[in-house]
Amino acid sequence: MKNGGVPDSRAGSVRKVKYVKVVEEDFDGSPGFFLDHRPYLKELTELAPQLPSGARGFVTDPEHYDYSGRRCIKDLNLRDYRAFGAGGIMDVRFKFDGNQYKHDEGLAISYRSVIEFQLQIYPEPKAPPLGHMGLGDLQLDEILPHAHGCTHEIQFTGGHLYIVAADLAARWGDEVGDQ
Q: Closest Cα partner for 110 from 160, 166, 156?
């Protein structure tokens, strides 16, 4: 394996996570993932003040990494994304469905003034990519400060998302997945 747990076949991946660990594992013949957000949380105390307000509020929410929490990002499923542009500025919105066994509602994340957006679907994921977009379940994410605002990196079971934006706004709600 290379790149902090990304298999060799994905050496060209856009993955840039620095602290969060998402490593594919084989658990007695069943594919799965070892997840560890703790190194990121240690750094987050210093990083959070450098983040734009929307990103900071989202990632420092006490339930964000509480795997049993109703507003934990783990196990969300990307339903839809749209890009909007005007005056040379692009905004992007992602809608996630909640996991039926865990979440009471979906999540929408809107990114303002996007300057970089990369989405990768793995050609041969170990775990079957499920859901609307073929990316599988969201495993973990990491938000870091950037000269433009922030980066948001999301690792799924079957793919990866990386975005650079001025800020983001996250909203949980029942209607999020239906809009």
A: 166
